[in-house]
Design a protein that fits this description.
- With 206 residues, the protein is an all-alpha fold.
- It has 2 domains: 3-93, Rna Polymerase Sigma Factor, Chain: A; 96-206, Arc Repressor Mutant, subunit A (Orthogonal Bundle), CATH 1.10.10.10.
- The chain is 63% helix and 0% strand.
- The protein is built from 10 helices and no strands.
- The longest helix has 23 residues, at 21-43.
Length: 206
Amino acid sequence: MPLNDTLPEQELLRLAVAGEEAAFAALYMRLKSSVYRFALHMTGSPAQAEDIVQDAFLTLVQEGDRYDESKGQVLSFLLGITRNLVRRVYRSSLREAPLTMENEEGEEVEMVLESGHDTIAEVLQGEAVSVVRDAVQSLPPHYREVVVLCDLCDMTYAEASKQLDCNLGTIRSRLNRAHNLLAKKLESYAQPSRRPAGGMIQGCLL
């Protein structure tokens, strides 16, 4: 049987770090889609996402001996690497989101959760993939991350908490604020006269 059918990801990583090309190829085929989806939603650029995927897997092999199975799955470790690469793209491009949730002193401003969840859900029920992607791209990075992980990639709050290295309360707070921002972006599109017919968008909108 091929390696990807018989070995767990942590064993594939161990073999890949040791120089087994077949193990690296199997790990790449198993995890590349998840890494690409995350990178695409975070950058909004297919070309940048492809580059980040390649760099992430190379870094995974180079730093794979730092992987600690007790702290999570290989995918979580790999997404941590991917997040660092995405942040490097942010710094190099100096791209700033047009919406902000900080006051003049740079402090985060609390928002009361409104009806944003319903508005977002209505758009997600249609086929407005590009509209959702554009709205997500308008979010500041720390809000974009929780939306991508929790809403688009189906991570639980607990999984996102580990991935982003923050407590559950912070995950909930950021997600609520992000939903409010997204609601303002999407509410005009969610009007019945403008909403296209279609079924539920599955997975990570890909």
